[in-house]
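Extended Data, record CDGSH iron-sulfur domain-containing protein
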Amino acid sequence: MPEDVGPILLQGPVEVVLDDGEVRTCERPMVALCTCRRSRTFPFCDTSHRRRARPSAGGGRAGQRDTQ
Ligand code: FES
């Protein structure tokens, strides 16, 4: 999985058809679509992707949290 996981930003409003055929809509002028599947409001991003711990390799300290 790529390290910089985050939403895809789209100009709204949008209509998203899920795998089961359910349709979700968002009327906002800018819409963030979840790519990590951690969102409680999937398919829309709720910033849950930020709660992921960074890997210890690559200069970060083990257990350091992503605070973006
Ligand atoms: S991309 Fe933000 S919660 Fe999944």
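Summary. The longest strand covers residues 8-11.
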